[in-house]
């Protein structure tokens, strides 16, 4: 049990994966959520796109989809069932329930530019 961003107590998993490049979650050959969804307004947003603040909890498409995904799980535990890595630093994690997480570096240079 830990405190979340808004100070609410919540249960978290034993492990966490922190990704700092492009990624997408696929189920049954359909992209269900992706890293870019954080910067897209959710379906309830009615303001001007220029005024959209993606960092407000619950305002973006990512938060909306994530809430739906976890609400529909009925406490089912999803496990990693396979792993593939490529020569470019990409990774494919295969999960139970037909989920696949594809992580792919989305820059063309070899070193991080600061």
What percent strand? 25-35%
H/E element order: EEEEHEEE
Number of strands: 7
* Major sheet strand order: 4-3-7-6-5
The whole-number mean of residue pLDDT values reads 86
Q: Count up the helices.
A: 1
Q: What is the end-to-end distance?
A: 36 Å
Domains, number: 1
Helix content: under 10%
- Characterize the biggest β-sheet: 5 strands, antiparallel
Can I get a quick summary?
The protein is mainly β and 114 residues long. The protein contains one helix and seven strands.
Structure in words:
The protein is mainly β. The protein has one domain (21-104). It has one helix at residues 61-71; strands at 2-3, 9-10, 22-27, 30-34, 80-85, 91-95, 99-104. Strands 4-3-7-6-5 form a five-stranded antiparallel beta sheet. The model has no long low-confidence stretch (mean pLDDT 86).
Which structural traits does this protein have?
7 strands; globular; two-stranded antiparallel ribbon; mainly beta
Secondary structure layout:
Blueprint: E1 2-3, E2 9-10, E3 22-27, E4 30-34, H1 61-71, E5 80-85, E6 91-95, E7 99-104
């Amino acid at each position: 049990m830990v405190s979340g961003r808004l100070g609410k107590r919540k249960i978290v998993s034993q492990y966490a994966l922190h990704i700092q490049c492009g990624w997408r979650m696929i189920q049954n050959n359909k992209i269900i959520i992706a890293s870019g969804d954080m910067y897209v307004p959710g379906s309830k947003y009615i303001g001007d796109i220029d005024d959209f603040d993606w960092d407000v909890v619950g305002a973006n498409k990512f938060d909306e989809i994530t809430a739906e995904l976890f609400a529909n799980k009925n406490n089912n535990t999803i496990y990693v069932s396979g792993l593939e890595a490529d020569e470019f630093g990409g990774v494919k994690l295969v999960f139970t329930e037909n989920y696949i997480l594809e992580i792919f570096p989305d820059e063309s240079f070899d070193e991080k530019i600061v």
